[in-house]
Specification:
The complex is a heterodimer of chains A (323) and B (281). With 323 residues, chain A is α/β, with parallel strands linked by helices. Chain A has 9 helices and 13 strands. Helices cover 28% and strands 23% of the residues of chain A. In chain A, helix 3 crosses helix 4, helix 3 packs parallel to helix 6 and helix 4 crosses helix 6. Chain A is globular. By secondary structure, chain B is mainly α. Chain B is elongated, with a radius of gyration of 22 Å. Classes of the chains: A alpha/beta (323), B mainly alpha (281). Chains A and B meet through helix 2, helix 3 and helix 6 of A and helix 8 and helix 9 of B.
Chain lengths: 323, 281
């Protein structure tokens, strides 16, 4: 089975003084049709920029470097002409953002914001678009969809607005939905509902999903694969089960140790010392080296992605030691 | 953060300032539209019976001028001229300013640099000077042309205002979202950005009305604006200048009309400005 989305060696750069920095530095992953990949990492690791790069939405002066490749079902997205690119945005790949308070246009009724997408991508009468919009609102669990079409964003709660955002994203019937921290701005109880909804939609619509999050807790049971990102690079990728059973990279292990657990023995939370260094201060060699509890003798050389198990890779020399 | 235009208007109307301003302005507009029908025609019927330069009386509440014309009906007809000039000129300058500001702010880079340096350059030339030159060069400029010329020289500040708003908004998530959903730049500019700049634009427009009325009055007073016999407030003050001691009402009443109108417009504009800022309650 060929992958729906194939990202190879993606590098995003920004000017910094005389040179350029690379907040996304050689990221490769694939997403299969109908599957969910979770991209996990701390703030500033480059995960949001990675998602923006897929649709070429990197704000200038940033740019995607030559040699990167993003292929959707055989189409090279990075070489598309503007018109063809617009036909992909919202139609084949849709995106929802972190903060539903600011991602809806405050001066338009939500009905118009949903039908706008349909009119941009399909030939459709106003009446048909409206009926579609009602069905979409129903699908994302908004009560009284007929009424709500006429509401303005400020008349809805945060959870409702995120549901509207999802309805807007679904309006183009995308094959891939990018959800950038879709629940970070929401209450915990609403978070679970939105994640359930996204998972339900992915299954019923056979839609692939790239779920971007800093929260390992929401990944379990919802993602098929997990990619852990650190300092612009992927440092560990594995099927979700495998990653949760055998987190192998010291950073991933640190992430798990810093998440409170509901089951198992009660121990102290172990935060990872320090913070992610900014892109202009990455150390040579392994980028996690300054924070790593294990000082591997080879860590002054940047490790490549090494095999750590079945479908399991990590960017750490420990993998070579057969640990 | 600014409030949308509709909310701002509602909030402005809830304040005493805003209500007083809009009521006074409404009264002047109604007076300008309907009073000329009920009053003697200032063009056709000089009141020879009462005579020239009559002091205000029951027959002529604002008195008569040197040509025996009723000052009240001339002030009323002048309201039409002044308000029409203000409306057309402000509409034109807001449109031009919004267009330039949108394009400069949204596209940024070289487009922005070129447009804004042009605006900077144009702003260095006094507006009245440009207007006087144009009006002097174009003898017997028709009223419509005067409106357009005033409008075409008044958009510079507005373009900066709109550009600043666009710069603030264009990295907002909903704009990024519209791009992610495949919207064209034109659609993003006119559908997503422009309506969100309406609040500040409306404030600028309201305050601009006061400016234009004063500008037109100033031009007419210099004899370079509205041509006689069309009555305009500025022109009427000029007419009364020679008889200021003998018949001060010929100049005073159009002067009061200017003050009342500009005051009303500015009251409302100021209330609107305060109301569109959510930090002011």
């Amino acid at each position: 089975m060929t992958a729906l989305l194939d990202v190879r060696d993606l590098r995003v750069s920004f000017p910094d003084g005389a040179g350029r920095i690379h907040p996304v530095d050689g990221v490769s992953f694939t997403i299969e049709r109908g599957k969910t990949l979770a991209l996990v990492g701390e703030s500033g690791c480059g995960k949001s920029l990675t998602s923006l790069a897929l649709l070429r939405l990197i704000p200038p002066p940033g740019r995607i470097d030559d040699g990167s490749s993003v292929t959707l079902d055989g189409t090279d997205l990075l070489s598309l002409k503007p018109d063809a690119l617009r036909a992909v945005r919202g139609r084949r790949i849709a995106m929802i953002f972190q903060d539903p308070m600011t991602s809806l246009n405050p001066v338009f009724r939500i009905g118009d914001q949903i039908t706008e997408v349909m009119h941009a991508h399909f030939k459709m009468s106003k009446q048909d678009a409206r009926e579609q919009a009602v069905l979409l609102l129903q699908e994302v669990g908004i009560p009284d969809p007929d009424e709500r079409l006429r509401a303005y964003p400020h008349q809805l709660s945060g959870g409702m607005r995120q549901r509207v955002m999802i309805a807007i994203a679904l309006a183009g019937q995308p094959e891939l939905l990018i959800a950038d921290e879709p629940t970070t701005a929401l209450d915990v109880t609403v978070q679970a509902q939105i994640l359930e909804l996204l998972d339900h939609l992915r299954r019923t619509r056979d839609m692939a999903m790239l779920l971007i999050t800093h929260d390992l807790g929401i990944v379990a049971g919802r993602a098929d694969h997990v990619a852990v990102m650190y300092a612009g690079q992927l440092i560990e990728t594995a099927p979700t089960r495998e990653l949760f059973d055998r987190p192998s990279h010291p950073y991933t292990q640190g992430l798990f140790a810093s998440v409170p657990r509901l089951s198992g023995p009660v121990g102290r939370l172990m935060p990872i010392a320090g913070t992610v260094p900014p892109p202009n201060a990455w150390p040579a060699g392994c980028r996690f080296r300054p924070r790593c509890p294990i000082k591997h003798p080879k860590s002054e050389t940047m490790p490549p992605m090494l095999r750590a198990g079945p479908e399991h890779e990590m960017r750490c020399w420990l993998a070579e030691d057969g640990k | 953060m600014r409030l949308p235009a509709g909310t701002a208007i509602r909030r402005a109307l809830a304040t005493p300032r805003g209500r007083a301003g809009i009521m006074a302005l409404g009264a002047i507009v109604v007076f300008g539209i309907f009073a000329p029908f009920a009053l003697p025609d200032p063009f056709a019927q000089p009141d020879i019976v009462s005579g020239a330069m009559q002091a205000p009386s029951a027959v002529h509440p604002f008195g008569t001028d040197q040509l025996s014309r009723d000052v009240l009906s001339r002030v009323a007809t002048g309201a039409r001229v002044s308000l029409a000039v203000a409306a057309v000129a402000v509409a034109l300058s807001m449109t031009l300013g919004a267009l330039v500001g949108l394009v400069a702010g949204y596209f940024g880079g070289a487009v922005d640099a070129v447009l804004m340096r042009l605006v900077d350059g144009a702003m260095a030339v006094p507006r009245l000077f440009v207007l006087l030159l144009l009006v002097a060069a174009w003898e017997r400029m028709p009223l419509t042309a005067l409106m357009l010329v005033i409008g075409a020289t008044g958009w510079l500040g507005t373009s900066r205002l709109v550009r600043a708003e666009v710069l603030r908004l264009k990295d907002a998530d909903f704009v990024r979202g519209a791009e992610a959903l495949g919207a064209r730049s034109g659609r993003i500019m006119f559908r997503h950005l422009l309506p969100n700049t309406m609040g500040p634009l409306l404030v600028a427009a309201t305050l601009g009305v006061g400016d234009v009325i004063l500008l037109e009055a100033g031009l007419s007073f210099l004899g370079m604006g509205v041509r006689p016999p069309t009555p305009s407030w500025g022109g009427m003050i000029l007419d009364g200048k020679d008889v200021l001691t003998a018949a001060p009402w010929v100049s005073i009443f159009p002067g009061l009309a200017i003050i009342a109108t500009v005051l009303a417009v500015n009251l409302f504009g100021d209330a609107l400005r305060a109301a569109s800022d959510p930090r002011e309650t």
